[in-house]
Each structure stands twice: as structure tokens, then as C-alpha cells.
């Protein structure tokens, strides 16, 4: 490999990583919103014994 192709491959590697990190999000999670709380809150005793 000559120096120019090595440098070109290195720059391409760095720019692809930069584009992946700072590019738009490509996750395909469903938009479900906030889920309501269904249950009772934990009633812990005021004096914990170990």
C-alpha cells in the first residue's frame, strides 16, 4: 500500500465514524409516550433494621 491510499482509508474511516456519531438517529423504537404508573408506591418503614 502506498502512503496516499493509506491516508485516504484512514480519513474515510474517521469521517464515517464522525458521521455515525453525529448523524441523525436511526433507531426504530415505537413512539409510545409516557406510561402511566399502575401500582402502589412502596411504603417503607421509617425505621430500617439491618
Care to describe what's here?
There is one protein chain. The model has no long low-confidence stretch (mean pLDDT 82). The chain has 50 residues and is an all-alpha fold. The chain has one helix and no strands.
* Strand residue content: under 5%
> What is the chain-wise order of helices and strands?
H
Shape by Cα distribution: elongated
- What class, by secondary structure content? mainly alpha
| Low-pLDDT stretches | none
What level of helicity do the residues show? 40-55%
Largest sheet: none
Mean pLDDT: 82
Q: What's the total helix number?
A: 1
Count of DSSP strands: 0
C-alpha end-to-end distance: 67 Å
Rg over C-alpha atoms, rounded to the nearest angstrom = 26 Å
Q: Quick gist of this model?
A:
Helices cover 40% and strands 0% of the residues.
Overview features:
mainly alpha; 50 residues
What layout of secondary structure does this protein have?
Layout: H1 3-22
Amino acid at each position: 500500500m502506498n502512503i496516499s491510499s493509506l491516508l485516504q482509508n484512514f480519513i474515510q474511516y474517521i469521517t464515517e465514524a464522525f458521521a455515525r456519531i453525529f448523524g441523525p438517529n436511526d433507531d426504530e423504537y415505537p413512539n409510545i409516550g409516557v406510561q402511566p404508573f399502575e401500582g402502589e408506591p412502596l411504603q417503607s418503614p421509617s425505621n430500617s433494621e439491618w
